[in-house]
């Protein structure tokens, strides 16, 4: 598909789980949903329910609603058929929300600028069923493993926190790595976890051995701001230098540069269920990569 250009910088993007649609949350607080195809892209919806920048967008697993979170501390659920907000928590956090993820059909996780993590049960009109603060800086990214109900939270304080969602408690925290953890992905069939850092190193952890990392892979000249799993052995990374790279883990090597956004830092990478990669950067564009 061709690029999608926006009037303002983009904080987050996410693919619809079933339809060829992508959502974007913008710095001006607006949220837009586009359909995409090789023949062109079409704006389907625009929402303006947030008062400040929209920092996170994530579809429900069935794709019927879009969950949005904002610097204004609110979380809203939008029905994408009607375009109406059908559930909102205006003071979901006491600090600006930094990231959010749909983890199960009725559960979403949110993390804020001060290190709080909350789990919300949407069946109970959005009841918060878990609230923990194990980190001292912003929660940058989540990953989730459903069969073990394990939520991983990467934080700007350099610590990876691991939670059991069913038991609603902390399992363990990593040692402080003294560099911001900016993104997290579970790979190798659940045996390894990778985190991108502020100093351009990829930290590699072995599952259930959370204290110290098992390996580290330097090689990015600037911070690794976002990453996404392409296969069990390969991730794509987005860096402050505007480059999107394919990286093999064990064996650790840079496979090459997929593309770039010029000199604009990469904000987010996402992969659709149809193996299409999308990127957004500070140039206010979404680009697609096969």
From TrEMBL:
<dbReference type="InterPro" id="IPR050505">
    <property type="entry name" value="WDR55/POC1"/>
</dbReference>
<dbReference type="InterPro" id="IPR001680">
    <property type="entry name" value="WD40_rpt"/>
</dbReference>
<dbReference type="InterPro" id="IPR036322">
    <property type="entry name" value="WD40_repeat_dom_sf"/>
</dbReference>
<dbReference type="InterPro" id="IPR019775">
    <property type="entry name" value="WD40_repeat_CS"/>
</dbReference>
<dbReference type="InterPro" id="IPR015943">
    <property type="entry name" value="WD40/YVTN_repeat-like_dom_sf"/>
</dbReference>
<feature type="repeat" description="WD">
    <location>
        <begin position="90"/>
        <end position="123"/>
    </location>
</feature>
<protein>
    <submittedName>
        <fullName>Uncharacterized protein</fullName>
    </submittedName>
</protein>
<keyword id="KW-0853">WD repeat</keyword>
<feature type="repeat" description="WD">
    <location>
        <begin position="275"/>
        <end position="290"/>
    </location>
</feature>
<dbReference type="Pfam" id="PF24796">
    <property type="entry name" value="WDR55"/>
</dbReference>
<comment type="similarity">
    <text>Belongs to the WD repeat WDR55 family.</text>
</comment>
<keyword id="KW-0677">Repeat</keyword>
